[in-house]
Design a protein that fits this description.
mainly alpha, 9 helices, 213 residues
């Protein structure tokens, strides 16, 4: 019975930690801002969110289950993956938008043909968002997987699946709501300075992701 209580407590802890982690702005706000700047439709943004979310939860599950496997034999020896690279990706993409917005004088629309541009910004945006999420597994969940090493593999896999579904659903819902709300912001100042604002926010999100990683 105590084993069931332990498993239940770890499962609830994992769910709570995954939900709190999914609420972080780095999991949805960057998608809304980039979608707005790139004039993506909501359905296109949602595809990017789901694709990036799958990358994020896959990395988290792999790291978490690896931690659980190692803890079965080495309960006191595990290195938690921590890297500033996702934060640098966010900040770097934000700097790109800052420079782009400054060079365009803040104007939201551009009339020249982008066919000869050296960078396909749409693909770069999708790639940056995917890498930002995939290279940033949820380190806050790793200690829970580490503590769950005594549980059976079916239970551990069930925990990983629950974490993945909850995280992706939260990202999708928050991105959907954020996109819908942002569409109503049609103030002239925002339209003129959209790229500058986007760049500043992404740089801020990158700094946030760096300090709380």
């Amino acid at each position: 019975m105590s084993g069931d209580l332990q498993a239940g407590g770890l499962f609830l802890g994992l769910v709570a930690a995954a939900l709190v982690h999914a609420l972080l702005p780095t999991h949805w706000l960057s998608f809304v801002l980039v979608a707005r700047a790139q004039r993506w439709s909501r359905s296109r943004m949602m595809r990017v969110v789901l694709f990036s979310g799958l990358g994020h939860v896959t990395t988290t599950a792999v790291v978490g289950l690896t931690a659980a496997a190692l803890s079965k034999g080495f309960h006191r020896y595990i290195g938690v993956l921590q890297t500033p690279l996702p934060a640098f990706i966010l900040a770097g993409f934000g700097l790109y938008y800052l420079v782009s917005g400054w060079r365009r004088g803040g104007h939201p629309h551009c009339t020249h043909d982008h066919a000869d541009d050296p960078l396909d910004l749409d693909r770069a945006a999708q790639g940056a968002l995917f890498l930002q999420m995939t290279l940033s597994p949820c380190e806050t969940l790793i200690p829970i997987f580490l503590a769950s090493g005594a549980l059976s593999w079916p239970v551990l896999i069930g925990m990983a699946v629950a974490m993945s579904v909850l995280t992706i659903c939260a990202m999708a819902v928050l991105s959907f709501l954020g996109y819908t709300g942002y569409q109503k912001l049609t103030f002239p100042w925002l339209e003129r300075n959209e790229r500058l604002l986007l760049g500043g926010v992404l740089v801020g999100l990158g700094a946030f992701a760096f300090w709380v990683r």
